[in-house]
């Protein structure tokens, strides 16, 4: 692509050849792909632009760093519970300093091990914060991030994840693992497809956005309570995440920043529709 060549990324799972083919090699496969391209039937995948590809991958590395930090935090809390018989909350741990942590563990060996984990946890927190600042500074379209953050439940991290993982919103279409994978015949379930099809980072972002929207937005919380009573189930993260898929593309395509009240109405309108809404159905 950098040297002027037209590159096509073929979706191999969408072009199965004839099962009774007697012979197949690279030459026959190339002829088959050329014939599909000539007819305009070649299913292609999206090649992410090079200028933001490294930034997207850097934000993905944040996930592994956060997981490591959470494991260290849980280990420190477990050591505190075994030593004292009390509970140490995450907020209380964040307010502690190494000198204060020393007084909580009377045993020297336990204290030494916890201090090592605590220092590693502090280092990870510093690196995660620096990584987030770098990614936000390296965004090509920060105005789109402002629009995404106007949606209830989407903050800076979720907004950057949605923006970088989706790429160009004009061509973007993804199941985001939000569409129910089921095969029906005469109203009866005959099987299911690939439930893991889609971008797992987008799936995580929609799940988190749905949870935050229910927690902090009163209108969406009331809708969720009505739906939970009607469906007789405790929690439906997938359904809430599907609701947020449609307003995301609407906000990203607009040229003005909508008010929170208008966006809440969009989410409530989408909530009343059939489950399974995804970004591919937003146009």
Descriptive report:
The chain has three domains: 1-45, no CATH class; 51-137; 143-281, no CATH class. The protein starts with 25 loop residues before the first helix and ends in a 12-residue tail after the last helix. The longest helix has 35 residues, at 50-84. Helices cover 60% and strands 2% of the residues. Residues 255-283 have low confidence and may be disordered. It has helices at residues 26-39, 50-84, 90-95, 98-102, 108-137, 142-149, 156-166, 200-216, 218-231, 237-253, 260-271; strands spanning 183-185, 188-191. The radius of gyration is 24 Å and the shape is extended. Helix 2 (50-84) runs antiparallel to helix 5 and helix 8 packs across helix 9 (218-231). It is mainly alpha-helical. The chain contains eleven helices and two strands. A two-stranded antiparallel sheet has the order 1-2.
What structural class do the secondary elements suggest?
mainly alpha
Share in β-strands: under 5%
Number of strands: 2
Order of helices and strands: HHHHHHHEEHHHH
Identify the overall geometry: extended
- Average pLDDT, rounded to a whole number, is 77
Radius of gyration, in angstroms, nearest whole number: 24 Å
Report the helical percentage: 55-70%
Strand order, main sheet: write it out.
1-2
End-to-end C-alpha gap: 30 Å
Low-confidence stretches: 255-283
Q: How many helices does DSSP assign?
A: 11
Largest sheet: 2 strands, antiparallel
As for the number of domains, it is 3
